Fold each of these.
Amino acid sequence: MKLYVIEENGAERICCMDKTGMLCRLKDMGADVGDMNELIAKMSPEQLGRLEIPDDAERIPLEKVKLCAPIQPKRDVICLGVNYKEHIEETTHVEDFQHKEATVYFSKRVSRASGCGDVIPSYHFVDSLDYEAELGVILGKSVKDISREDAVSAIFGYTVINDVSARNLQFRHKQWFRGKSLDGYTPIGPCIVTADEIADIQSLRITCKVNGELRQNSNTSLMIQPVLDAVAELSQGMTLEAGTVISTGTPGGVALGMKPPVYLKSGDVIECEIEGIGRLVNTVG
C-alpha cells in the first residue's frame, strides 16, 4: 500500500492510493487515526492490506492536493554515512573513508520534516548547499537486540529522503550534525510504501536530478551496509522505537564530489526518486 499524508482544510489526513492512482482517505476505510505514527502503532502492513476501499468513498486526484511529509519523526533521524563505494571515492579529497572498518552512523535533527513540493530554505551563512538522495526505512515496531533475520519483520515501510547538507557547516564543526539539521533540511516523501509491496529492497534504482540534469544514478544493491544488517546492528544494545526513521546513505554524484563543486542555488529544483516508491521534488528558496 502507498500511504500519503495530505493537507486538507488546515488538517493532515492519511490517504492510500488505489489501483487507478487516486487517493482515498483511510478514515473512509475504517482506519481513522491522527497521524502516521499512530497508524504504525495500531496496524501492521498486513492489516492495512486487508482494508477495503468502499465503492462510495471519495477519490482525490494526487495532483490536486498538497502533500505533507508522510511521517514526522518522533526522534532524530538515524543516518548511515558513506554507504556507497562511489560516494566514498568522490569525497576522498575531503575525508578518506576508503579503509573504514565499520558503518558510519550519525543523527539528523528534525524539528519538522518537509513534504514533496516544500521549499528548501536558503540561509545566508550557508554557501555550499548539497543534495543527497537516500532510501528511508520506517520501523513498524519497537525492537532491541534483533537478528538480521528478524529485522525484516520490524520494517513498516520505505520512503525517499533528501539528506540536504550545508557542507561548510558540516566540515567547519568537524562532525555532521549541525550541517545536516537546519530547519527544512529533511524533505521526506512523496509517500510511504509498506514493506510487503517491495519484493527486494536491495535492487531498486535511486536517482537525483537537479534542474532536469541527472546527478545521481545508482542502485540500492550497491549499499555497503544493507538495510537489514543496519537495522540489526543499530538494535544491539539500543531500543529502536516504532516509527523510527533510518536514512540509509547516498550514492555518488553529490555536488561535493564534482570538480569543481556545483552547489545548489536559489530556484534549483531537486528530484530524488527511488524505483517503486516515488519522486520527491523540492525547490531551493
Note: The first strand starts at residue 2 and ends at 8.
Amino acid sequence: MVVGIAKIELFIPEPNSLKAKRQVLKALTQKIESRFRKVSLAEVDEHDLWQKAVLGLSVVGKDQKLVDSKINDILTFIQKDGRLEIIKAEIDFINY
C-alpha cells in the first residue's frame, strides 16, 4: 500500500475578500472530489490571505505508479482551472 501526499500552493488573482476566495476553493474541491474518487483534500494553510491558498491532498493506492498518476492528473485538472494557478506542488510517498 502506498499513500501519496501533495502540498499545493495556489495563487488566486480575482478574490477581493476571504469569502470570494473560499467560494473558488469550495467549487474547486467539490469538482476534484466528484471527478477523482477516493481523494482527501483540504485547505491547510494561508487561511487569512485573499489571493493565496495551500491545499493538502492525499491518495491511497496499491502501488506508487498508480498513486503518482492520480496526483498528477489532479494537478493537471487544477492547472486547467482558469481561476487560479499552481505556484508550487510538493509530492511525497509513504510505503507500507
Note: The first strand starts at residue 2 and ends at 11.
